[in-house]
TrEMBL record:
<dbReference type="GO" id="GO:0009098">
    <property type="term" value="P:L-leucine biosynthetic process"/>
</dbReference>
<dbReference type="InterPro" id="IPR043131">
    <property type="entry name" value="BCAT-like_N"/>
</dbReference>
<keyword id="KW-0808">Transferase</keyword>
<protein>
    <recommendedName>
        <fullName>Branched-chain-amino-acid aminotransferase</fullName>
    </recommendedName>
</protein>
<comment type="similarity">
    <text>Belongs to the class-IV pyridoxal-phosphate-dependent aminotransferase family.</text>
</comment>
<keyword id="KW-0663">Pyridoxal phosphate</keyword>
<keyword id="KW-0032">Aminotransferase</keyword>
<dbReference type="InterPro" id="IPR036038">
    <property type="entry name" value="Aminotransferase-like"/>
</dbReference>
<dbReference type="InterPro" id="IPR001544">
    <property type="entry name" value="Aminotrans_IV"/>
</dbReference>
<dbReference type="InterPro" id="IPR043132">
    <property type="entry name" value="BCAT-like_C"/>
</dbReference>
<feature type="modified residue" description="N6-(pyridoxal phosphate)lysine">
    <location>
        <position position="205"/>
    </location>
</feature>
<keyword id="KW-0028">Amino-acid biosynthesis</keyword>
<dbReference type="Pfam" id="PF01063">
    <property type="entry name" value="Aminotran_4"/>
</dbReference>
<dbReference type="GO" id="GO:0005739">
    <property type="term" value="C:mitochondrion"/>
</dbReference>
<dbReference type="GO" id="GO:0004084">
    <property type="term" value="F:branched-chain-amino-acid transaminase activity"/>
</dbReference>
<dbReference type="GO" id="GO:0009099">
    <property type="term" value="P:L-valine biosynthetic process"/>
</dbReference>
<keyword id="KW-0100">Branched-chain amino acid biosynthesis</keyword>
Amino acid sequence: MTTQAPLKASPLYFSPISPSHNVAPGKEGYGRYMLTIPWSRTSGWGQAKISPRADLSFDPLAGVLQYATTCFEGMKCYKDEAGDLRLFRPNLNFDRLKRSGARLGLPAEWDNAELLDLFSKLLYLETDLVPQADGQNLYIRPTLLETSESFGIKEDAFASEALLYVVTSVNLGAGLYASAEGKGLRLDACSEFIRAWPGGTGSYKLGANYGTVSVAKKPGFAMSLWLHGAEDFVSEAGAMNIWIIKEAKDGVLEFVTMSLDNGIVLPGVTRASIIQLLEDHASGKAEFPLPGMPKNIRVVQRDIPMAEIVEGTKDGSLKGMFGCGTGVVVVQVAEIQYKNELYQIPANPAIKLLRDTMTAVQRGAIAHEDWSYVIPAWEAGSAQEHDVDGQKVVA
Ligand SMILES: *Cc1c(COP(=O)(O)O)cnc(C)c1O
């Protein structure tokens, strides 16, 4: 039994883009580079490589193609006022990728610091591509998948070969938010297709969770609001965690989101960050970073049946609704179609306040704990990039 090599940031195989490199039509908004790290069950993690973004090739029976053994993360790189690049709580995404990988029998062990080092180098090379304007960013898509052949009955649950890769794209998700700005999203509550159920994979970021329900999308609606169970409990919308703002019987303004207990809901980094900001504010542990958040609030994590939302629009107890996630940050939900009725959801100023606070922390305009990570310069990489014409360099 050989020992499996751990994931290491160095030595890094760096293949700079040639100065005569032309971007393929339609791919102008993509980062020029990709990071790839192969893994095999016998030898562990192979050498990390940063090279020009290119197609991947696999055996036609690769697990990813046959059985959708693929999972991913969604992160963003921001450029602050000083021109530095920043990531928001990257270790939470890395930990979640480990969880998703383990769920699929893919490799799920590495040192986050090594991976962060590689991310930083990849992103530093794309510095010019990262927009600086508020609300803009370079979207990052880490992906982990099974490259080995997989068919019939496997001997055991684990993949024999896998690939972790990272590609980037300018401003993914910005269009969706812009279309909702001021008026909010229209959602179609869907009970025909079920996104997630107890014991399923809803709480993991697996490709299959998205591909199998994308047919539910209705024209005229931004995305589906996923429901589950006999009582049509709300789970999520698109790739966002969902919140309602509700006036409770005791007069407290409640921020209610689904609990993670039944394994149906994706444990969002944005969700967790909003919960912490609101709970610290409510308990007096830390003032909400921007002024204007009411003091008399409470965070509640529980199931929300559609009937409660419908009633809330009628008796006035529903004070707002929003989605949150890396893509949209925080976005108001304005309308829901449910059982052929259209329900209007009131706007709430707390939603914009949450959005402004999250974007300010993400861009480093407001410091909060260690939530924003500044990417160090990688002079060696950028110097080589300018000196070397298509030559391979091990850094
Ligand atoms: C990614 C995702 C979210 C949001 O998670 P963040 O970590 O906040 O980006 C929510 N729901 C689903 C289904 C997702 O895929």
